[in-house]
Specification:
Blueprint lengths: L3 H14 L3 E4 L4 H13 L4 E2 L9 E3 L13 E3 L4 H4 L4 E2 L2 H12 L7 E9 L8 E7 L2 H10 L1 E2 L1 H7 L6 E6 L9 E5 L4 E5 L4 H4 L2 H17 L2 E3 L1 E7 L5 E7 L6 H5 L5 H6 L2 E6 L3 E5 L5 E4 L4 E5 L9 H6 L5 E3 L2 E2 L5 E2 L11 E2 L5 E2 L13 E5 L16 E9 L9 E3 L3 H9 L2 E3 L11 E3 L12 H15 L5 E5 L19 H11 L5 E4 L2 E4 L1 H4 L1 H4 L3 H8 L3 H16 L7 H14 L2
Parallel strand pairs: 1-6, 3-19, 4-5, 4-10, 7-9, 9-11, 14-25, 25-29
Antiparallel strand pairs: 2-3, 6-7, 6-8, 10-11, 12-16, 13-14, 13-15, 16-17, 17-25, 18-24, 19-24, 20-21, 22-23, 26-29, 26-31, 27-28, 30-31
Bound molecules: oxalic acid and manganese (II) ion.
């Protein structure tokens, strides 16, 4: 017997959207082979060189549909005040009326795919089922990589299980009627007129972050925009670290980090649990455990190379969909940063002939690879552990050319929550808007928190109280500080091991530090700047805390905090005041 509520909803959507066919996805190999065959035949996808990229495909999304559209993303909670000042709110009844008008008859001539999927490791008490109804076979194929899709999810659902609902239609890709609308009270997302990942793959940002964050608050856990990595030292001690960075700030690279030669030779290892989303819950021992709800990587391609991230390249060699990168004549792909020497000619992300002299980018800055996580050489043997992995450290980081030192540690959970709440970062191409502009991005969740950010911070503080001294330590990093000539002061990538080693030591109560007004900063020896080739002067600048710059930040944060009115936890206001006091007059 089937699942009555699910069948009734599919029928309701069928009547509304009037597709020619309804197809229930089982997630099988035969099914995906057929879908790829159909998409190649109708020109949706181009099959890549089968020797160099077996079973891999090339896709171009519409030129006006290449990134998340935050201004068209809505939280339709019953009360506007529950969406808070950082979300676009819309009245749920009105939004339903608007969307029903748009969805009416929109799938005529198309197939409605029913995509059952599981977020979280199979058999995990943390796993949750979602159903996405979509008319895009590209979305179906991407969901098959990014989630555990098909029969497995239906089995988990049984005949009466709960599920999150997502309804998506590519529509006609008119940006004027693009909506990514979340109805937290109904566990529902409706997305219209887009085919880009973050807007159309509804398991990822929409379910696993925006809707899940609302559920997490009710149930006492955290749904976060975080990678999870495992760090093993030469003594075999393993430390799991969760880290939140805004989109396109290197989460995938950090999650898959290859230690620099010194660390490799000494026997250090980094393993990947996840690169984008973490669900964190208390285990029976009172510690916080993390799972990666996803099953694939939707990684930013530009800048990914053998030097910066060989694990990502290995992961996306086969069974991968590339979106909006450049297409070479031999059926391979290219993007800026993949090789030092660009191809002499290729087709750019818009399908136009391109040469190095064209003066434009061959790949869109937010072009992506969609690859199975299991293909990543650094994938952790623990990545599908049903109970998750114990988290010892939480790291926050933004892209800041000035002011913020390479690494420092929070004094305690409350101070750490303040560090997360006051994170800011220079904008990247992952969302539509002005790249480079500095904006507040609390916990890297600004575009992903499904409710009032003030209540979210309160939830962080409450979770910290519940966990007490079993909570992870909290750190802040900044890989992106620049010198006066605009050059990066820190080499990053494999050398980030120096920072991770210190973080792991601090988690054991070791590792040298000195107290500074902003937190516990490393001593120069603890990081080993000289070994990395950072001069003494640069190391000083990298770690410097300029009191005037920080005071300016504190005043600006005060203005930011005012937005949250009486839902700003008093503790965060106190942390801001205390920082000002420590900075002195
Ligand atoms: C992503 C994003 O795609 O954060 O992961 O935009
Ligand atoms: Mn992300």
């Amino acid at each position: 017997m089937g699942h009555r509520r699910l069948e009734a909803w599919v029928e309701e959507v069928r009547r509304l959207t009037e597709p020619d066919h309804v197809y229930w996805c089982d997630g099988s190999q035969a099914e995906i082979d057929r879908l790829y065959g159909e998409m190649v035949a109708d020109g949706t996808l181009i099959r890549l060189n089968p020797e160099k990229h077996p079973n891999s495909y090339y896709f171009r999304s519409d030129v006006n549909d290449v990134a998340r559209v935050e201004q068209r993303t809505f939280i339709c909670s019953r009360l506007e005040s529950d969406a808070g000042p950082t979300n676009n709110w819309a009245d749920p009844a009105q939004m339903h009326a608007t969307l029903e008008g748009l969805f009416r008859g929109c799938m005529r001539g198309r197939t409605l795919y029913v995509v059952p999927y599981l977020m979280g490791p199979p058999g995990s008490p943390m796993a949750k089922v979602g159903i996405e109804l979509t008319d895009s076979p590209y979305v179906v194929a991407s969901m098959r990589t990014m989630t555990r899709m098909g029969a497995m999810a239906l089995d988990e659902l049984g005949t009466d299980g709960d599920f999150s609902r997502g309804l998506h239609s590519t529509g006609h890709l008119d940006p004027a009627v693009r909506y990514i609308s979340h109805f937290p009270d109904e566990n529902l997302v409706m997305s219209f007129s887009s085919n880009y990942g973050g807007n159309a793959l509804l398991g990822k940002k929409c379910f696993a972050l925006r809707l899940a964050s609302v559920v997490a608050r009710k149930e006492g856990w955290l749904a976060e925009h975080m990678l999870i990595l495992g760090l093993t030292d030469p003594q075999g001690r393993k430390t799991f670290i969760a880290a939140a960075f805004p989109s396109a700030c290197g989460k995938t690279n950090l999650a898959m980090l290859v230690p620099s030669d010194k660390y490799l030779a000494a026997g250090w290892k980094v393993e990947t649990v996840g690169d984008d989303i973490a669900w964190l819950k208390f285990g029976a021992d009172g510690r916080l455990y993390g799972v990666n709800p996803e099953a694939g990587f939707f990684g930013v391609a530009p800048g990914t190379s053998e030097e910066t991230n060989p694990n990502a390249l290995a992961a996306c060699r086969v069974n991968t969909i590339f979106t909006n990168v450049a297409l070479c004549e031999d059926g391979t792909v290219w993007w800026e940063g993949l090789t030092d020497v660009p191809p002499s000619h290729c087709l750019d992300w818009k399908g136009q002939p391109w040469t190095p002299g064209s003066g434009t980018k061959a790949a869109h800055p937010n072009s992506r690879f969609t690859a199975p996580a299991s293909q990543c050489p650094s994938i952790s043997p623990d990545w599908e552990k049903p109970e998750g992995v114990p988290i010892s450290a939480i790291v926050f980081g933004g892209r800041r050319s000035t002011t913020v030192p390479l690494v420092f540690e929070a004094f305690n959970w409350q101070h750490g929550t303040y560090l997360g709440a006051t994170m800011s970062s220079e904008k990247t191409a992952a969302a539509v808007g002005d790249v480079g502009e500095l904006r507040h991005d609390p916990m890297a969740m600004l575009p992903f928190c499904g409710y009032h950010m003030g209540d979210y911070w309160r939830h962080w503080l409450d979770v910290g109280k519940r966990g007490g001294d079993r909570m992870p330590r909290i750190f802040h990093v900044n890989w992106f500080r620049k010198d006066a000539d605009g050059g990066y002061l820190w080499p990053g990538y494999g050398d980030n091991m120096h920072v991770l080693e210190w973080i792991a030591a601090r988690c054991r109560g070791e590792g040298d530090y000195v107290d500074s007004p902003i937190g516990r900063v490393t001593t120069p020896d603890a990081i080993g700047f000289r070994e990395v080739g950072v001069s003494e002067a640069d190391a000083k600048e990298l770690m410097s805390v300029d009191r005037d710059e920080w005071r300016a930040d504190v005043f600006e944060r005060e203005v930011f905090f005012r937005k949250f009115g009486d839902r700003l936890p008093q503790e965060l206001r106190e942390e801001n005041d205390a920082l000002l006091e420590r900075l002195g007059e």
